[in-house]
């Protein structure tokens, strides 16, 4: 365990304009919102494997631990390497990592926050667990729901949000960003009580 109080917040997704608006990229969207709240934008990390923003998630003058927002430059199924690189660089152990990702088994617009667990077939989480050597990190799971009819889940997650969902999406992003702040400030129990509905 490191004695650092730095938090590493990772938005899982795929890089580039092709994937920007897809369900699989909710993690990127939440990290963008957190960056906006921190008053900055993500810049290339010296490793070249990720983009980062360092700062604090608190009103000016309020005490708050250091936060590093990150997103991998590679594809979802290779997220683990860049996350592991950032964790080593900033001396952050798994207990201070928060991964934000899409979740098929949760209804759209709903959040679930938890610590640890399996990867549930999610390639980003699978890669993170393999590279970090543990699954004991926090997850902010943003529900995208199950695909309609017989649509392949892989096509569904890489598809764009529906018109109706796009109207609701800003609220889900905002809520997920609030959950990240609550997790850092208040801990898991209170965050779950507030956001796991």
From TrEMBL:
Question: Looking at the record's lineage, which domain of life comes first?
Answer: Bacteria
Q: Where is this site: Discriminates between blocked and unblocked aminoacyl-tRNA?
A: 14
Known catalytic reactions: an N-acyl-L-alpha-aminoacyl-tRNA + H2O = an N-acyl-L-amino acid + a tRNA + H(+)
Gene Ontology biological-process annotations: protein quality control for misfolded or incompletely synthesized proteins; rescue of stalled ribosome
Q: EC?
A: 3.1.1.29
Entry's Gene Ontology cellular component terms? cytoplasm
Q: Which residues form the active site?
A: 24 (proton acceptor)
Question: What does the UniProt entry say about where the protein is found?
Answer: Cytoplasm
Q: Where is this site: Stabilizes the basic form of H active site to accept a proton?
A: 102
> What keyword terms does UniProt attach to this protein?
Cytoplasm, Hydrolase, RNA-binding, tRNA-binding
Write out the GO MF terms. peptidyl-tRNA hydrolase activity; tRNA binding
Q: Which InterPro entries match?
A: Pept_tRNA_hydro, Pept_tRNA_hydro_CS, Pept_tRNA_hydro_sf
Chain sites annotated for binding tRNA: 19, 75, 77, 123
Q: Quaternary arrangement and interactors, per the entry?
A: Monomer.
What the protein does? Catalyzes the release of premature peptidyl moieties from peptidyl-tRNA molecules trapped in stalled 50S ribosomal subunits, and thus maintains levels of free tRNAs and 50S ribosomes. Hydrolyzes ribosome-free peptidyl-tRNAs (with 1 or more amino acids incorporated), which drop off the ribosome during protein synthesis, or as a result of ribosome stalling.
Family from the record: Belongs to the PTH family.
Protein name per UniProt: Peptidyl-tRNA hydrolase
Q: Which organism is it from?
A: Nocardioides marmorisolisilvae
